[in-house]
Amino acid sequence: MAEPKYTEKDWDEIRTAFASSIMVDTQISSLAQNLDGPVWPVKAKDETPAKYIDMSYDEALELLALKGQSADKFDLLISILKETLAFDTPFGDMVEQTQAAAVRDNPLLKNMSRIGIPENFPISLTALGSDTVEFCKLEHLKTLGEFAVFAQGMSQNVIIGGDFRKLLNALSNIDETTLVEILPFRKGSKGLHLVEALGQAVRLPNPMPKAREAIVWFLDDFNLLRKEFAETGAVVRQLGVLGNVELEKKVSDLVRQLIRPGSGTTPTEPGKKGFFGRLFKK
After folding, report:
1. Which of 32, 166, 238, 247 is the most exposed, having the fewest neighbouring CB atoms within 10 Å of its CB?
2. Measured between alpha carbons, how far is residue 166 from residues 88, 120, 127, 129 in Å?
3. d(CA 22, CA 12)
4. What is residue 96's DSSP assignment?
5. What is the distance in angstroms between the CA of the first residue and the CA of the last residue of the chain?
6. How far is the CA of 174 from the CAs of 40, 82, 107, 114, in angstroms?
7. pLDDT per residue as tens digits for the range 116-160
């Protein structure tokens, strides 16, 4: 068995220093992901630094053993805390800020307001990659506003990548071209839109769940689509903003499935009317 990399003295130093870190209640697996290094094997929600830092060297080793982890995972734990602390320490003064002050001075939220992106827009309705969506779930980030506040509170030296960085940069610089890729955003316009949300949904293997969620969020927009469909039997006029004939056809087909009886969005049992049954009632 390899000799431990860190000593009891190292552990006492790092756990004492980490007690005041803003990341003390963050899942260790998320900290490891931010560092882009070896993964932390325990994925439980309460698997945070706070779980370990009150323990002695031997107690922490014993707890890891009870979780089926070998002694080398204790070296990994110390490395994760040590590297996180190196990023975190220069920004320790952020602990003193109130949440209200952080939100008030948040440039991402200001930019979102400037281009009409609502803070409560669900991350589940974005086109972020599965890895980023999973990271947001781990950090309990459900909306774009929560994403912005979390990103503002991160150390500037934390290494992030993928769609997390892509969205962060797009909101920071109001990069409309990139925003169109990630959000149901329309270049040259303000706000978010149902047509673009459906355009992103049809790229999925099963677009219907996301399309139904989008309908609930963009109910006024959907009522306009229904009105056009009732008058003309199609929704060509509103889909023209997509600027892609093939994509327009796919979205048009999806809208037909959502509106026409028997599409699966209305109840089939006589006398029963669920949410979508009321929604589509003429």
Report:
1. 247
2. 22, 19, 11, 10
3. 19
4. G
5. 73
6. 35, 34, 11, 9
7. 999 999 999 999 999 899 989 988 999 999 999 888 877 555 557
Question: What amino acid is encoded at 212 in this protein?
Answer: R
- Crossing angle for the helix pair 208-217 and 245-259, to the nearest 10 degrees: 80
Cβ atoms of residues 259 and 241 within 8 Å: no
Amino acid identity at 231 = E
Structure-token match 């600027």, residue found: 243
Tokens of 100: 């209200």
Q: What's the token pair of residue 263?
A: 């599409």
The Cα–Cα gap between 169 and 162 comes to 11
- CA-to-CA distance for 26 and 136, rounded, in angstroms? 12
The token duo for 7 is 């000593």
For 18-36, the pLDDT digits (tens) are: 887 778 889 999 898 888 7
**Cα–Cα nearest to 128, from 203, 218, 16:** 203
3-state secondary structure of 132: helix
What count of residues does the chain have? 282
> In angstroms, what is the C-alpha Rg of the chain?
24
**CA distance linking residue 86 with residue 158, whole number of Å:** 9
Closest CA to 234 of 202, 256, 267: 256
- Phi, psi (rounded to 5 degrees) for 145: -65, -40
DSSP 143: B
Bridge partners, 185 (sequence order):
192
Residue 83, pLDDT above cutoff 90: no
Bridge partners of residue 95, in order along the sequence: none
